[in-house]
Amino acid sequence: MSSFDKYKRFLDVALEVSRYGGFSKKYVGAVIVYKNKFISSGANRIKTHPRQKLVSVDTEYLHAETDAIISAMKKKKDLSGCYILVARKTKDGSVTMAKPCSHCLGLIHEVGIKKVVYTGWNGRLCEIDYKHDKFSMEKKA
Ligand SMILES: [Zn+2]
């Protein structure tokens, strides 16, 4: 059993919600998880949000990660024990690279989330754990 098996359930959720944003160019979904429990989800959305403007100057749509964080913060004040999982699906249904952009990584860091799991090329899960190394170390599944 791979150590990434525990993410499978939330990967499925992220891929499912990726279709809900109404943004047809990029299907990206994000899920925030705390102690193996679902906290919130988000999708790339056409609409902007004031929060997105704070973290990004050149983005015309709300990113899934930011969307999920906004929802999570309505429920839970401290997100430091959570991780975020980000997944991207192409139009033909294959799973591909969903590494958060630098703006979203900045926000993820700001709200205290220590671990980022995302789908890489070929749909494989990758992980950034920046407790120790501030985004520099990436592990392959
Ligand atoms: Zn982003």
- Name the shape in a single word: globular
DSSP, total strands: 7
Averaging pLDDT over every residue, what do you get?
83
**Distinct ligands:** zinc ion
Intertermini distance: 11 Å
Using only CA atoms, what is the Rg? 14 Å
Class by helix and strand content?
alpha+beta
Number of helices, counting only DSSP H or I runs of 4 residues or more: 5
Low-confidence blocks of residues: 133-137
Helical amount: 25-40%
Series of secondary-structure elements, N-terminal to C-terminal: HEEHHEEHEEHE
β-strand percent reads 25-35%
Q: Can you put this structure into words, describing what you see?
A:
With 141 residues, this protein is an alpha+beta fold. Helices cover 29% and strands 27% of the residues. It is built from five helices and seven strands. It has helices at 8-17, 50-55, 64-75, 102-110, 130-133, and strands at 27-34, 37-43, 82-89, 95-96, 115-119, 125-129, 138-140. Strands 1, 2, 3, 4, 5, 6 and 7 form a seven-stranded mixed β-sheet that branches. The longest helix is centred in the middle third of the chain and has 12 residues, at 64-75. The protein is globular and about 35 Å long. Residues 133-137 have low confidence and may be disordered. The chain binds zinc ion. Zinc ion binds at residues 63, 65, 100-101, 103-104.
